TrEMBL record, chain A:
The lineage of its organism: Eukaryota, Metazoa, Ecdysozoa, Arthropoda, Hexapoda. Belongs to the SNF7 family. It is found in: Endosome membrane. This is Charged multivesicular body protein 6. It comes from Zootermopsis nevadensis. Residues 18-74 form a coiled coil. It comes from the Eukaryota. The keyword Ligase does not apply.
TrEMBL record, chain B:
It holds the Pfam family ESCRT-II. The keyword Cytoplasm applies. This is Vacuolar protein-sorting-associated protein 25. It is found in: Cytoplasm. Gene3D superfamilies: Winged helix' DNA-binding domain. Chain C. Domain 1, Winged helix-like DNA-binding domain superfamily/Winged helix DNA-binding domain. Keywords: Cytoplasm, Protein transport, Transport. One of its GO terms (cellular component) is ESCRT II complex. GO terms for biological process: macroautophagy; protein transport to vacuole involved in ubiquitin-dependent protein catabolic process via the multivesicular body sorting pathway.
């Protein structure tokens, strides 16, 4: 599929042999459709003619016409089956092409993945992780050193200030007794926990 | 087939004589241009033969017994050709193709239809485009095949389509 027979025009044609095959099938389909249209027209005409003949009292000829009409109707049915076959084939072909595209897409994706894996081998990752860990430890050491620069008194003062801020931010203790509803909610909360 | 709505000028006898005064003439030609394009759009005829044109209702108003002379028809057609709305088919300029959409506009219409139907990257027959069930509601349904070929060639230039097998089929990209 998709083989170009070295047809080198000014620019590479994007039409493949596959496309040409599909086109031929579709043309066939169009021909059948046109044929059906023609027969349908004929049927309509025959019907009207038969009516006219009947009115004119030519029963035998009307019968003959109806026979012809019946025959054409059968042909119409047969062409319907052919049309269906053609449509199926066209759909199959088109679907095959889509499948090909999907496979090609998967192939490209797979190769890209492989390339990335080549770059990312396990040893490299381990090395990087080790280095990261070392870095983190070093940072920790530096942090400790810096934090240690404060004297215990300073730490105490910090704690105190924090305590003060918390005190200031805290809401006042409610004066009145908790109502029954509050108690109920409390029990609910306890149950929930 | 829908009835053509004739503009008021159509019942105005001087409309059928190409005017000498420049400004009047420009207006007159503009009116004729839109009349011709509307007429062809409604009747869905794409070919105009100047040798027979005077017999059609478009250039011959029997009610007021006036018809546009041949030179007048050619003048207007040449004006239409200038803007890409008409194209002579032979050297003698007898037969003309009328495009009530320019080829570029047509190309856009066809291409957006293709996109809507999800027919990108598929093969289509020309019959399918102009007479298929899929395009029944489109303006280009029933359009002359020759014009369709030209439209698709326009798309080919912008690499959106490629015609093949003696212009029997087309693939959209």
């Amino acid at each position: 599929m998709g083989a170009l027979f070295g047809k080198s025009k000014k620019q590479q044609s994007r039409v493949t042999e596959h496309d040409k095959a599909v086109l031929q099938l579709k043309q066939q389909r169009d021909e059948i459709k046109q044929y059906q249209k023609r027969i349908e027209k004929n049927l309509e005409k025959d019907k009207q003619l038969a009516c006219k003949l009947l009115q004119a009292g030519k029963k035998e000829r009307a019968k003959l016409l109806l026979r012809k009409k019946r025959f054409q109707e059968q042909i119409l049915q047969r062409t319907d089956i052919q049309l269906e076959n053609l449509e199926f084939l066209v759909h199959d072909l088109e679907f095959c092409q889509i499948e090909m595209q999907v496979i090609n897409g998967l192939k490209v994706g797979n190769e890209a993945l492989k390339k990335i894996h080549e770059v990312l081998n396990v040893e490299e990752v381990e090395k990087i992780l080790d280095e990261t860990r070392e870095g983190v430890e070093k940072q920790q050491e530096i942090d400790d050193l810096l934090a240690g620069a404060l004297t215990p008194e300073d730490e105490e003062a910090v704690e105190e200030e924090l305590e003060q801020i918390i005190q200031a931010e805290m809401p006042d203790v409610p004066q009145e007794e908790p109502t029954q509803q509050d108690c109920f909610i409390e029990t609910l909360l306890i149950q929930d926990i | 087939m829908a009835e053509v709505e004739w503009p008021w000028q159509y019942s105005f006898p001087p409309f059928f004589t190409i005017q000498v005064h420049n400004e009047t003439r420009t207006k007159q030609i503009a009116a004729w241009r839109s009349l011709i394009l509307d007429y062809h759009k409604i009747t869905k005829h794409c070919i105009l033969d100047t040798r027979e044109a005077q017999r059609t209702a478009l250039f011959n108003n029997t009610a007021i017994d006036r018809k546009l002379p041949l030179e007048g028809i050619v003048t207007i057609l040449e004006d239409l050709a200038r803007t890409g709305n008409a194209q002579p088919l032979d050297k003698q300029k007898h037969r003309w193709q009328i495009y009530w959409h320019t080829l570029e506009e047509w190309a856009d219409l066809v291409y957006s239809w293709v996109q809507r139907c999800g027919m990108m990257n598929t093969v289509c027959t020309l019959y399918e485009i102009t007479d298929g069930d899929n395009s029944a509601d489109e303006e280009f349904h029933g359009l002359d095949t020759e014009i369709m070929v030209k439209i698709l060639q326009t798309l080919e230039v912008s690499k959106k389509a490629e015609l093949f097998d003696d212009n029997q089929g087309v693939k959209f990209f």
